[in-house]
Structure formats: C-alpha cells, structure tokens
Amino acid sequence: MKQNYLYSLILGLFLLVAAPATAQDADTRMPKKTTTETIEGLSLYPNPVSGDKIYITSTKNLEKEIEIYNVLGKAIKKTKLRGKELDISSLVAGIYIVKIKEQNEIATRKLVVK
Predict the structure, then answer these.
(1) d(Cα 6, Cα 35) in Å, to the nearest integer?
(2) How many Å apart are CA 96 and CA 80, to the nearest integer?
(3) 53 in the Ramachandran plot: left (φ > 0), alpha (ψ -120 to 50) or beta?
(4) pTM higher than 0.90, yes or no?
(5) Does the keyword Transmembrane apply (predicted)?
(6) 12 or 49, higher pLDDT
(7) Which segments of the chain does DSSP mark as H helices, in order?
(8) What is the rounded CA–CA span in Å between residue 72 and residue 46?
(9) What is the CATH number of the domain that holds 81?
(10) Within a domain: 107
(11) DSSP secondary structure string for all residues of 16-33
(12) Do the domain assignments include residue 21?
C-alpha cells in the first residue's frame, strides 16, 4: 500500500511539473501564420473552362507569375504572364490550383478544366 502511494505521488508530481512545460514547448514550435495580400480586382475566367485558354486580369494589369498545381500538389505549369491570355492546352480535364503572383501580392484560385 505504501508503495502504491509513492507511485501515485511521483506520477502526480510529474504531471504537475512536466505536462505544462511540454504544452508550452509545443506552442512555440507551431508555425506562424503568414499574411499575404490578395491581388486587387483579380479575375480568372472562364471557369470551368472547356477550351484551351483562360484569361487572368487584375486592376494593376502588371506582369504575373503563374503556377498551376494538380490536386496532389504537383507543379504542372509555371510561366510569366505579360498579357491576360494563358494557354492551358497541355492540361487534361480535372481540378487545379492556380497560384498568381503580381508584385508582392499573391492569390490562389481553383480552376476546373472540362
């Protein structure tokens, strides 16, 4: 009986001392959220698309870096867009994520190719 009491006391002290320290350590290792501005007036059309081209426009109409990913996260296409017309003839039917960067602003859009 004395031995069980001793084990219970040690376990209780461990939980009081070690558990809060572990929880605090876990919080410091959590990744920080980054904030990114969205692109003003961004438009991607037509969506869903059944042709070979999509159009990407924004208020500033500056050069854009375009990255297209499949639903598994694999990069399918990377290009710079100087106008507003993007050739997507190499994409098979499916769902894609389009990452658009204009200056320091980044936005993502879902694209459905029929």
Answers:
(1) 51
(2) 18
(3) beta
(4) no
(5) no
(6) 49
(7) 2-28
(8) 23
(9) 2.60.40.3110
(10) yes
(11) HHHHHHHHHHHHHTSPPP
(12) no
